[in-house]
Design a protein that fits this description.
With 88 residues, this protein is an all-beta fold. It has no helices and 7 strands.
């Protein structure tokens, strides 16, 4: 997963999940992002061959970010979520 930041729109964070083992082969992937404490998660999921996303949240200045993502790697789910990152 990659997390990007821009100062535009009161702070904008963007997340992308890059395929690893199955890069170039269509498989299920998902990535999600939200402001910590918010239930308004932006999610992109589906059958992709290179990456899922980008997903963005705005007005993030002064807040922390929660993000998560994963992919189906041959019938096994490989994913991770992190809470309260990139606080500022």
């Amino acid at each position: 997963m990659r997390l990007y930041y821009s100062s535009a729109n009161g702070g904008t964070n963007c997340a992308v999940l890059l395929a690893k083992k199955y890069y170039g082969t269509t498989h299920y992937m998902e990535v999600g992002i939200n402001i910590s404490g918010s239930s308004n998660t932006k999610l992109d999921s589906g059958a992709y061959s290179r990456y899922a996303g980008p997903v963005t949240v705005t007005r993030t200045n002064g807040h922390c970010i929660d993000l998560g993502g994963g992919e189906d790697i041959g019938g096994l789910w490989a994913g991770r979520s992190v809470k309260r990152v990139h606080c500022g």
